């Protein structure tokens, strides 16, 4: 079923302004705002080849592994993102990317796998000027997936980026992805702490990376979050030809 014709919810972290990181934003969502309760069997983060500064990938997977019950991995996805996906002269249509992304990864993971695609290109969904990310499939009719653009969230002040810049990009992506995961488990109504919506990149950086205590207790009971966060994780090289990164949990 095409994402353009299927019923789905779009949760977009976006800025409705012409200049990057300008205050003035909204959430774009369809009529379906709450899906059925479900727990991810795994989290797969796909990285497009045009994302060249990848220092955030390992730390991001590690941070997600610390709190989630589901295993987390990251891998390359050389998906063609051509001019046929353009929404404007300089932006790609997030819905069309999601359609192609779903088709390209259909054979990977089961129906409960949550998939996230990080790309370098700027994205949008009408009528908004641009997006940070969009999540599809919250309604439960299709498995959830998320399209994330690093254009406006990656910290780029030097090349190669410093450790502090990598940490900032990692934190931004973590907040975006963890919020999407929780929304996709049937908890779209949670709106405090890390689940709060930020009206700008400044608010996004300021908001907590933690869950509010009642929300955390609920998500632990549901089997989404670990009861006890682990202290760290260790990268394990697997399937190098496929660009797969996974982690061992250090418990």
**CA radius of gyration:** 17 Å
Return the CATH class: Alpha Beta
Low-confidence stretches: 1-33, 235-251
Residues in helices, as a percent range: 10-25%
CATH architecture: 3-Layer(aba) Sandwich
CATH homologous superfamily caption: Collagenase (Catalytic Domain)
Strand content bin: 15-25%
Mean pLDDT, nearest integer?
81
CATH domain fold name: Collagenase (Catalytic Domain)
Query: Total number of helical segments?
Result: 5
Secondary structure tally: strands: 10
- Provide the number of structural domains: 1
H-E order: EEHEEHEEEEHHHEE
Strand order of the largest sheet: 1-7-8-5-2-3-10-9
Task: Categorize the overall geometry.
Answer: globular
For the termini, the CA-CA separation is: 41 Å
Q: Describe the biggest sheet?
A: 8 strands, mixed
Instruction: Give the structural class.
Output: alpha/beta
